[in-house]
Amino acid sequence: MEAVTRYSLLSGLSLLLLVLFVSLASAGDEYAWPEEYTILCSSEKSTGLDWEDGDWKIVQYKDLKRLIVKSKENQCLGVGSLKPVNNIEKEVCLNVRRVEHNYVPGMSRLCIEGTYGVKHPNLMISCDLPRIILSPNGWYHYSKISGDLDDAPKDDLKDSQYIEVGKCSMIKP
Predict the structure, then answer these.
(1) Which residue, among 145, 78, 143, 142, has the nearest Cα to 107 in the 3D structure?
(2) Which of 46, 120, 160, 172 is the most exposed place for a label (fewest CB within 10 A)?
(3) Are residues 99 and 65 in contact, defined by beta-carbon separation less than 8 angstroms?
(4) Domain segments of the chain: what residues?
(5) pLDDT tens digit sequence for 95-150
(6) Burial code of 142-151, b = ≥16 C-beta within 10 A, e = fewer?
(7) What is the distance, to the nearest Å, from the Cα of residue 75 to the centroid of all Cα atoms in its chain?
(8) Phi, psi of 150 (to 5 degrees)
(9) Does pTM surpass 0.70?
(10) Is 130 exposed, middle or buried (0-12, 13-18, 19+ CB in 10 A)?
(11) 3-state secondary structure of 2
């Protein structure tokens, strides 16, 4: 009798684990990245520093919109094959530009798509030069930091230091 009860318990537990595994595996599909997409990001605040007359001046910039496009036509120059970084991140070739600029496939860059979290998985994209980190349907942070540390640059010109925050939404999966 004890062997039958133990067998029933193990069978029930095995069935429960199988159902849980299948539901988790299928739940992961809803967080999968599409093969191609377009994300629209709109800045809400942007500020920075402009170099004027030999010193940095604090400035506010106008709001703008950016497009992040994953397309088979994108070309990341100088990059070999794209590969998974680990089981939650993979390399992708994305075209990141302001809305008013034309799409140029060769102006795409290497970025990372990631899926983070267990209870509530979050999708996130990260690109460098300039740096942008975003959630496809949430916040984004964009920054451009110049490495020019010269005290007296030629013609008194330096690139601006810049940071913006805003919201994104996937407009074409």
Answers:
(1) 78
(2) 120
(3) yes
(4) 1-30, 32-172
(5) 999 999 999 999 999 999 998 877 667 889 999 989 999 999 999 999 999 988 88
(6) beeeeeeeee
(7) 18
(8) -65, 135
(9) yes
(10) middle
(11) helix
